[in-house]
Amino acid sequence: MQDVLKVGIAGLGTVGASVVRLIAKRDNRLAEAAGRPIRVTAVSARSRRKDRGIDLSGARWVDDPVSLAADPEIDVFVELMGGAEDPAKAAVETALGHGKAVVTANKALLAAHGPALAKKAEAKGVALNFEAAVAGGIPVIKTLRESLLGNTIERVYGILNGTCNYILTRMAEEGIAFEECLKDAQRLGYAEADPTFDVDGFDTAHKLSLLTSLAFGTLVDTKGISIEGIRSIKPVDLRMAEELGYRVKLLGVAQRTADGVEQRVHPTFIPKDEAIAQVNGVLNAVAIDADAVDLTLVGPGAGGDATASAVIADIVDVARGHRTAPFIRPVSALTKPSRAPMTRHEGGYYIRLEVVDKPGTAARIASRMAQNNISLESIVQRRAGPVRGGTDPAAAAAPAPVVLITYATTEAAVRRALKAMDTDGILLGAPQVIRIERN
Ligand SMILES: NC(=O)C1=CN([C@@H]2O[C@H](COP(=O)(O)OP(=O)(O)OC[C@H]3O[C@@H](n4cnc5c(N)ncnc54)[C@H](O)[C@@H]3O)[C@@H](O)[C@H]2O)C=CC1
Ligand SMILES: N[C@@H](CC=O)C(=O)O
Ligand code: NA
């Protein structure tokens, strides 16, 4: 058996603590799989005294994560601190600069600096592995890097944020308020240090940017992503979705179009009978449409052990000496992405309107849609009424929303129709517009 692989870990929070615990627990099995023992020999985090419920007696404490990255006594640097800038960035650069393999779960860092870091890794001939950075425990990076190389990929999309899926699922199934669901997701260790990254769609966008690069051979391009989060989703939207045969999910979608690669993150209506609509709670799903194979991977997208599972697989790859270019092709071979503008997006739409209650309003809605060549699959008006068990007279008197489901149209046409209705003075508030994704 070869020498021990000495692992230095910076960050001992939800993920870092699970990695330490699972490496100790699976000691023998990992050594057999990797052909050499794997030991955590040095660690770094903010607080040395904190009780994390893990045994750190075999690991040296290093106060500064960047010094740990340069430590000659470690073979692989595992970055689990988070954040797109220093100290995570400086630490990863330092480790790569010293010719050490890096394993990270940090999608914010890779979305901001992935190609530059990959270039450094390539120059030194070391691994930069980031399976945990996209869809947590689902082995999607390995799938793209290794298993689908014989394919041309047309679309990659999925539920990429466990926190949002957990919130939307509990809001829909249990009628629990958004804030309470978010607090539970934080308590369970799913949310980012700053949960606005989760609920405003940025975390999904970071992950999507990495998937896009791997799937389409393009440079990571977060600026080209249209991003909407889940804060605007109201209980009425979840109720209407259920009634009309849909579920609401926050999706990240990257697809090849005639105009280039369209990248978008937004809440989405998905027909209830589609597999991805049934992926609930903290589970993530990634669907890949390719010429030879279509597949969907489902699994836990967040949480300590699920994420640690992916981190450990990456460490074992380093121990075995397996290495691929971080983004499959060398960075010099990645192309500049041609962006497909969102206004050209084609698909169906759910539109919820609060409208003035006077004769002619429905006719005006219908004519504005027709003028923009938008065909309606259904139009529904429901008295809002009081919330179940509620006594709020304002809620009871609230205007009834009009809900439209369109057939396939363009984003530009929908925007034009809604602008015209606004000019007509029939709208009482901003319309809710949610795109529909069909398989
Ligand atoms: N929690 C999850 O379910 C998942 C997290 N990730 C990613 O894994 C990474 C870690 O996430 P968590 O473990 O949830 O975070 P956490 O907040 O629970 O832990 C962060 C750890 O890093 C240390 N740290 C943070 N800033 C530091 C600094 N400036 N200097 C020294 N130490 C510092 C903290 O002391 C703590 O030990 C992040 O990049 C996150 O995006 C990825 C997939 C899932
Ligand atoms: N906050 C993220 C953690 C995993 O990447 C999520 O909720 O998915
Ligand atoms: Na993963």
From TrEMBL:
Active site: K207 (proton donor)
Binding site for NADP(+): A10, G11, L12, G13, T14, V15, G16, A17
Pfam family, one: NAD_binding_3
Binding site for NADPH: K107
GO function terms (MF aspect): homoserine dehydrogenase activity; NADP binding
ACT domain ranges (all copies): 350-435
The protein's enzyme class: oxidoreductase
Enzyme Commission code: 1.1.1.3
InterPro entries xrefs: ACT-like_dom_sf (IPR045865), ACT_dom (IPR002912), Asp/hSer_DH_NAD-bd (IPR005106), HDH (IPR016204), HDH_cat (IPR001342), HDH_CS (IPR019811), NAD(P)-bd_dom_sf (IPR036291)
Superkingdom, natural source: Bacteria
Binding positions for L-homoserine per the UniProt entry: E192
Gene Ontology BP terms: methionine biosynthetic process; threonine biosynthetic process
Pathway: Amino-acid biosynthesis; L-methionine biosynthesis via de novo pathway; L-homoserine from L-aspartate: step 3/3; Amino-acid biosynthesis; L-threonine biosynthesis; L-threonine from L-aspartate: step 3/5
Coiled-coil portions: none
Sequence similarity: Belongs to the homoserine dehydrogenase family.
UniProt xrefs under PANTHER family: HOMOSERINE DEHYDROGENASE
Protein name: Homoserine dehydrogenase
